[in-house]
């Protein structure tokens, strides 16, 4: 009896995790929606996050991701929302900017530049994990390596499309808002570096968490816990 009770408690805790992640995101969203640096940029940065969040809520009862996938998605959404309040170029990021030179990747994270957007593009890559999980759960692919490959490719494609969206917005809006959304900070290779970081982040998330896909595949995806 005690064992069944413990299992039920763990199951209930697991079931409440997506709600907890949603509440964390909504709390930050409401807080940072107040008096952003540039309202036009705020909308431009937050709409690409608001749409997937709404889709996740609306489809939750038909398709539920693992808790790990929800955590990764929420982490990125909250990071992106934070940048939307300040604009990515002006986001307070001094501590991390001071640590990045130790990576010896000056071409990607140069000193004297706010690299919040570059780190953000690297974190975009973590969304490849839930994509791969979706491919496996829907049985659109037959094995984990194929799911991982398609997750990386799909994420890289989205990264390229987003760069095109940034370009069109900057041209259409013009002025300070357009430059703030584009966020190139004078780097002529900004778009290429951003796309590379998207793909690098996608590869990294599978190096760290790829084993979870194999585990859940063996278990039939019945265990949603982290």
Description:
The protein has 226 residues and is mainly α. Helices cover 72% and strands 0% of the residues. It has nine helices and no strands. It is globular, with a radius of gyration of 19 Å. The two termini are 25 Å apart.
Helix content: over 70%
Total E-strand runs: 0
The percent range for strand residues is under 5%
Low-confidence stretches: 1-10
Overall outline: globular
Largest sheet: none
Q: What is the helix/strand order?
A: HHHHHHHHH
User: Helix/strand/pairing class, anyone?
Assistant: mainly alpha
Distance between the termini: 25 Å
Report the average pLDDT across residues. 87
Rg, Cα atoms, Å: 19 Å
- With helices defined by DSSP (H or I, 4 residues minimum), what is the helix count? 9
Please summarize what this structure is.
By secondary structure, this protein is mostly helical. Helices cover 72% and strands 0% of the residues.
Strand-helix topology:
Elements (H helix, E strand, L loop, with lengths): L1 H31 L6 H20 L8 H20 L7 H6 L16 H9 L3 H10 L6 H30 L1 H8 L7 H29 L8
Keyphrases for this structure?
226 residues, mainly alpha
